[in-house]
Write a structure and sequence with these properties.
Blueprint: H1 2-14, E1 17-23, E2 28-34, E3 36-37, E4 43-48, H2 52-59, E5 62-68, E6 79-88, H3 93-105, H4 109-115, E7 128-141, E8 151-153, H5 155-159
Length: 165
């Protein structure tokens, strides 16, 4: 199981994009999302409030995520499936999330300066919001198993080591 925990951490660390699955109770949607992840393995991104996935999250916070490197050959690719909840970020926590996001997503200061925007762009009547996905379950499709079978990975074990260490 330790190998799965380490591989799960690696998958989160080396990838920058996840596929986010949402539902409003009547329809489903998937969206490619660029993410950053904190030490507790909460995932953050920003999106337009009128995007279909954002509207779904407003009505139903239960979401699923897939993370994998689509450029790897089938015989070596491993993937994660995560289930949990998502919410828009507001209030005093928003500025902390924004600062963390800009630092993680844009390590290069000149790139960060081009992308950074003020809190007003993500609060009040603004058209975009930051979101947080908090996983409650993690599953892996290991690359070394030829049968399509996912293995549950202990989330608490994953959280014992930050993704950026």
């Amino acid at each position: 199981m330790t190998d799965f925990v380490e591989k799960a951490r690696d998958i989160v660390r080396v990838n920058r994009y996840m596929t986010l699955a949402t539902s409003d109770g009547e329809s489903v949607w998937i969206a490619p999302i660029g993410y950053v992840v904190d030490a507790d393995y909460n995932f953050y991104w920003f999106s337009a409030t009128d995007a279909r996935h954002s509207r779904h999250i407003q009505r139903n916070p239960n979401v699923a995520v897939a993370i994998y490197n689509s450029t790897e050959p089938s015989d070596i690719v491993a993937s994660l499936q995560l289930a949990g909840t998502a919410q828009s970020m507001e209030g005093p926590e928003l500025q902390q999330v924004m600062d963390f996001y800009w630092r993680q997503a844009f390590a290069d200061e000149s790139a960060r300066a081009r992308w950074m925007r003020p809190i007003e762009d993500f609060s009040g009547a603004a058209m975009q919001r930051f979101y947080r996905f908090t996983p409650t379950q993690v599953y892996m499709y290991p690359s070394n198993i030829r049968v399509d079978r996912r293995m549950e990975v202990n989330l608490e074990e994953i959280r014992r080591q930050p993704p950026h260490s």
